[in-house]
From TrEMBL:
Residues in coiled coil: none
Name recorded for this polypeptide: Probable transcriptional regulatory protein ABR63_03370
Protein localization: Cytoplasm
GO biological process, alphabetically ordered: regulation of DNA-templated transcription
GO cellular component entries: cytosol
TACO1/YebC-like second and third domain location: 82-235
Domain TACO1/YebC-like N-terminal as annotated: residue spans: 5-74
GO MF term set: DNA binding
Domain of life assignment: Bacteria
Organism: SAR86 cluster bacterium BACL1 MAG-120920-bin57
Keywords: Cytoplasm, DNA-binding, Transcription, Transcription regulation
InterPro entries with a match to the protein in the record: Integrase-like_N (IPR017856), TACO1_YebC-like_2nd/3rd_dom (IPR048300), TACO1_YebC_N (IPR049083), Transcrip_reg_TACO1-like (IPR002876), Transcrip_reg_TACO1-like_dom3 (IPR026564), YebC-like (IPR029072)
Similarity annotation: Belongs to the TACO1 family.
PANTHER family: TRANSCRIPTIONAL REGULATORY PROTEIN YEBC-RELATED (PTHR12532:SF6), TRANSLATIONAL ACTIVATOR OF CYTOCHROME C OXIDASE 1 (PTHR12532)
Length: 245
């Protein structure tokens, strides 16, 4: 059941870097706004509840959170934020899936297209790579907890898989079971490092060191675009890539 996740380590490191630069707030505000379209009550809206957890973890002011909820639920200032997904190929033909939230479709299309071309990639058509990815719930728990105990709680609550990474345990669920697994962990007073619904490739493309660096460059550049929320790939990086990157 337990395995090793290379990309989880790289993504976790990137998340820490984003937080240190303060970029995480912009993305979380957009996530709250879009999630709130499904209802302003987090008890009835699991997606909003996840977004609020991220906001609280990043010490976002309550007034900022309130405005984002009001905007998304239609009770605050006017403005439309839409979700757009872009598909394409990076170096060595690896698949790249880009999730965005934007109030200016033309700007976002131009920015993402430029990011692909700048690093030797190509923007694809709708459906060109999306079929390679599955939507999953992902929960991260610090590895300081007892492995067998965390695994048992997660699986009993409906988790599908349990992965051991370098700094944390990664619990994989279906999107609909994410909230129930989170609740089971919290009832046992187990803190989580992160929880989200994300896209993950079922089949990976193994890369060497040089190509891994090229792929990570395009993903980091893409991730730094203001409208980009998440960047996914089917690339599999070498075991020692994180140390050498």
């Amino acid at each position: 059941m337990a395995g090793h996740s290379k990309w989880a380590n790289i993504k976790h490191r990137k998340a820490r870097q984003d937080a240190s630069r303060g970029k995480i707030w912009t993305k979380v505000i957009r996530e709250i706004t879009v999630a709130a379209k499904g209802g302003a009550d987090p008890d009835d809206n699991p997606r909003l509840r996840l977004a609020l957890d991220k906001a609280n973890a990043s010490n976002m002011p309550k007034d900022t959170i309130k405005r984002a909820i009001q905007k998304g639920s239609g009770t605050g200032e006017m403005g439309i934020i839409e979700e757009l997904t872009f598909e394409g190929y990076g170096p060595n033909g690896v698949a790249i899936l880009v999730e965005t939230m934007t109030d200016n479709r033309n700007r976002t299309v131009a920015d993402v297209r430029h990011a692909f071309s700048k690093f030797g990639g190509n923007m694809g058509t709708d459906g060109s790579v999306a079929y390679l990815f599955n939507k999953l719930g992902i929960i991260q728990v610090a590895s300081s907890y007892e492995e067998d105990s965390i695994m048992e709680i997660a699986l009993d609550a409906g988790a599908d898989d349990f992965i051991v990474a370098d700094e944390f345990f990664e619990i994989i669920t279906s999107p609909v079971n994410l909230s129930s697994v989170l609740e089971a962990l919290h009832l046992q007073e187990i803190a989580t490092l992160d929880a989200e619904i994300t896209m993950r490739a079922e089949t990976l493309v193994h890369l060497d060191q040089e190509t891994s660096e090229k792929v990570l460059k395009i993903m980091n550049f893409m991730d730094d675009l203001d409208d980009v929320q998440e960047v996914h790939t089917n690339a599999e990086f070498p075991d020692d890539f994180e140390e050498e990157a």
